[in-house]
Amino acid sequence: MKKLNPLLHQELRLSIISFLANVEWVEFNKLLEATSASKGNLSVQLKKLETADYIEIEKSFKDNYPLTRCRMTELGRDELESYIQTLKSMLDI
Amino acid sequence: MKKLNPLLHQELRLSIISFLANVEWVEFNKLLEATSASKGNLSVQLKKLETADYIEIEKSFKDNYPLTRCRMTELGRDELESYIQTLKSMLDI
DNA sequence: AAATTTGGTTTATATTATAAACTAGTTTAT
DNA sequence: ATAAACTAGTTTATAATATAAACCAAATTT
Questions:
Q1: Is B59 on the interface with A (CB under 8 A)?
Q2: HEC secondary structure over chain B
Q3: pLDDT in tens, B26-51
Q4: Residues 70-89 of chain A in contact with strand C via CB under 7 angstroms
Q5: B84 to chain A, minimum CA–CA distance in Å?
Q6: Is residue B42 one of the residues assigned to a domain?
Q7: Structural domain tally of chain A?
C-alpha cells in the first residue's frame, strides 16, 4: 500500500491545493474565503506548501496594502495527481 | 465546502476502514500486516474507531492466545461512503 | 491624532499521532 | 521446574502537528 503524502493529507492544505489546481494566481483573502480558515492557520499552511515548492507565494502591494498571491507549481500539481492516485487505489474508487 | 470527517481523514484509520470495507471479521495481526502499522498505533486507532462505533472489536482466544477481531459497522460504512463523496467533490474526481 | 481596519505573521497552546515501554500470559529449551 | 524467548496485545510518554490568539506595521477613517 503506497503512503499518502502527509503534506497533502491534511484538510486545510488539501483544500488550498485543490482550490489552486483550477486557477492561476489567487489572493490570500480569496483563499481565506474559499477555505474558511483563520488567517493565522492559512498563513502557516501556505508557508509549508511553499517550503515544499508545491506553491509559490508572491508578495506585492495593491492600493497601498500588502497583497499576497499564490499559485501552484508543477511539482505541486504532480504531487496532487499522485496523491489522488494513491487515494483512489486505497479506496477502490 | 463540506468538511472531511477527521476520524477518517487520517492515514492509518483510513487504511483500516478501507481494508475492513471489503471483508468480514479480520484479525489484529492481519490488519497489522495489511497496514504496516506498529502494534501500539494500531491498537490506539482501532479503539478510536470502536469508540465512534465505526467498527466493532471482539476479543476471544485461539490456541491459548488472545485473539482480537474487528469488523466494520453499518455506521462505519456510511461514514466511509460520505467521506469518499466529500473527497470526490473536493478533488473533482 | 486617536481609533479602527487591512493584511498579514509569530508564537503559545491544544490536539493528535506514534513508538517505546509495559502487561499478561504461552511456549520452548535446559 | 524454571529461565529465556515469544505471542498478542495495551498503556503512556514523547514527538509532531494543527490551530487560534496575540501581535505587528502600515493605511484609513473619524
A1: no
A2: CCCCCCCCCCHHHHHHHHHHCCCCCEEHHHHHHHHCCCHHHHHHHHHHHHHCCCEEEEEEEECCEEEEEEEECHHHHHHHHHHHHHHHHHHCC
A3: 999 999 999 999 999 999 999 999 99
A4: none
A5: 8
A6: yes
A7: 1
